[in-house]
Amino acid sequence: MSKIKKVKAHTEAAAETGKAVDIVTEAVTTTGGIPVATKAPPAVKIKRKKGALLPSYESPGAAAMDLRAFIDGELIILPMGRIRIPTGLFMEIPPGFEAQVRSRSGLADRHGLIVLNAPGTIDSDYRGELQVILVNLGSESYTVRNGDRIAQMLISPIVRAEISEADDLSQTERGMGGFGSTGI
Fold first, then answer.
1. Residue 20 half-sphere exposure, CB side, CA atoms within 13 Å?
2. Which listed site, 25, 34, 143, 158, has its alpha carbon 20 to 30 Å from 84?
3. What is the per-residue pLDDT across 117-165, written as a single tens digit (0 to 9) for each?
4. What are the structural domain ranges in the chain?
5. DSSP per position, the chain
6. How far apart are alpha carbons 117 and 129 in whole angstroms?
7. What is the mean predicted confidence (pLDDT) over 55-79?
């Protein structure tokens, strides 16, 4: 069943004037109780090496797809060690989108394994093999085997900023305070 849902955003300035800013209007459907936008999702093309497994959403509400290792034998990641793990996948992401590679929460919690540059960005013009840099922050070695789920990947729209050089920047209450300046 489809219904039109209008989403409005109030910026601080808009709230002061009482005017709302429309940011998106789209039809929304419900699939198994989960709202799903009816806009067509981006078409991502994937080429894979023989035997490599395609990324997969592991639950109906999953935002990200799991990525799997594509290796011969095993790779051992020593404590505090890092390794680049191939997936056997090559992608064509449409312009205006990126893929973000992130850690899997279970691996991070149970074994201290995280994606080193999380989120890792895969640009729309990259055509090389998708590889994942894992680091072992745990106290024990971890063995990766072919087909193991090693990371998750989210396809996300991007916005490219217009950069303009300035001699001065506006003043704020925070100013140049950073690295914990607002509290812990």
1. 7
2. 158
3. 999 999 999 999 999 999 999 999 999 999 999 999 999 999 999 999 9
4. 2-37, 45-157
5. -EEEEEEEE--HHHHHHT--EEEEEEEEEEETTEEEE-SPPP--EEEE-TTPPPPB--STT-SSEEEE---SSEEEE-TT-EEEEEEEEEEEPPTTEEEEEE--HHHHHHH-EEETTSSEEE-TT--SEEEEEEEE-SSS-EEEETT-EEEEEEEEE--PPPP---S-----SSTT--SSTT--
6. 17
7. 96
